[in-house]
């Protein structure tokens, strides 16, 4: 099995580090990786307002072509040493599908491998970034009425991201499927049978659409998460459905490339 990190961010991330693309690549080589995918947060739909205080959830539209060009140059530099793939982490946002599809139709030909994720949930007449901080998550619970309602809204959004028609360049991998658990130590919740049922629907849809799952270890680095963003029963179900699990460190700084790969290797064997 090729040693691969399929979820890596870059200096183009406004809320990440200033480590260079080369520093990420060198860290991957140092840790014995054969393949990496840069998956920077794609520009948000033009008519969508980023609800985070610093408006820094994604790279600017003006940076996207330089991002693609810089990775293209890096591919040539590391040819024969490290397989480098150009990708994006695309936010699925309900009601903005047409704008998301337009971005993918425009830039998809330059992408090798991408992720689709859910970070934003509607709360009343606006949206909240569910993983921004614990205060925002508490606000989301209040807006939805309960923790269970947040989970339901999240997993219904995940399901929509899987089945939505976003064109031929739609990402094939679903990112951190339990990101809703980022603050679980502060807001404990055990999934009800109802929520598990929606997750099963998501996994069925992933299998039917020939998609993959992000084995995302970044939750291990988060104070209030403390776990991989994929529960054991979900992994077992994915294996039964022959859904590929792809390791992703979700590194936002070079030092985190390959973080906790051993946990993935253990599951993969």
Automatic annotation (TrEMBL):
Its EC number is 3.1.3.15. It comes from the Bacteria. It holds the Pfam family PHP_C. It is an enzyme of class 3 (hydrolase). Keywords: Amino-acid biosynthesis, Histidine biosynthesis, Hydrolase. InterPro entries: Histidinol_P_phosphatase_HisJ, PHP_dom, Pol/histidinol_Pase-like. One of its GO terms (molecular function) is histidinol-phosphatase activity. It catalyses: L-histidinol phosphate + H2O = L-histidinol + phosphate. The keyword Amino-acid biosynthesis applies. Belongs to the PHP hydrolase family. HisK subfamily. PANTHER family: HISTIDINOL PHOSPHATASE-RELATED, HISTIDINOL-PHOSPHATASE. This is Histidinol-phosphatase. It comes from Bacillus vallismortis.
